[in-house]
Amino acid sequence: MRRVLLLTYEFAPFRGGIGRVAEGLAEGAVECGLEPIVLAPDYGADQSAADSSLPYEVRRFDGSFCSIVSPRRVLRFASICRRAIAEVRPDLVHGVDPPAQMALAALSRVRLVRGYIITVHGTELLRYRSEPLPRFWMRRGLGRADAICVVSQHVRDLLHRHFPVRHERSFVSYPGIARAWHETTAGSREARRSWGAGDGDFVILTIARVVPEKGQDRVIAGLAQADTGFRERTVYVVIGTGPDRYARELDAAATRNGVRLVRTGALPDDALVSACDGADVFAMLSRQTPTRLEALGLAYLEAGARRLPSVACRTGGVDEAVLDGRTGVLLPSEADAQVIAEALARLDADPALRSRLGKAACEHAGAFTYGRHAREVYGRAGLID
Question: What pTM did the predictor assign?
Fold first, then answer.
């Protein structure tokens, strides 16, 4: 059985997008008959109980120093990776995130790693393109990798625009979503009842980090512009955590404009499935900033797997996850509150449209599996025929 060592700074219990991609690659590698081993932080706590339930090995390192990349931390992580590589003796090393890219660049420079692949998510291209030292390490890491997987065509275009990488060395492979999004049977009434939503209410749902880049404030602004009757019977549910200041701003804006906002904080995965089943529309109106972008948007696909149509903005790689007029509604990246209000009201007024979009969203999401992603990535690396 061929071994793959996945190096990542983000993994369960951390719930970010990169962590979900790493989990999916590991699970997909098992499906493909490979032996994945994950090197990940412990986040300052004992993760052995949760790790023992996984169908692959997770090796933890001291994650108390995990934070923004710095030269000292890159070299420290590189040392940890070097020891893991020497112990595991993998057939392939896969750097799943930016710190891993940089650590592998440092190791390859002294010939401690002869071949590896990396995954590029997009935000690192924006964040480090103008910072001399991180850019140096990224260029070295990208240049020495045997192959570069990018999570959307938009990110691939961004990669080749800002870094000198030959086109034939990069390829697009969309990450998968967990099987539970398709298979779990969840009740919708319980979720709606917990939000105070009645049978005739219209429920809009956002599952994301509660930060301005995810655009929760844009949904509230749109509802503030909507017809009074529509607004009064609409419940806007926000699931996720983030800075207290932004959360307080959302609460204040909702109160000021008569928007029925329910913020739940973080929820376990099974509750997220139930939340989608209790909602009518998924909305995430992401913004691109100088240092962040929506590379693809797995949340749209997860909601789609539960037959929820999405309302999104045409930014980053979102139009590869949400197909305008087929699985949801794509608005201009700078859509104003009135445009947002009209899109939401149209979906409320047309249940048949919601049903058609939701059915197509479920079919579209069905192609985004862990196994397919792993086969594409590790097939490209020559581990799978």
Answer: 0.95
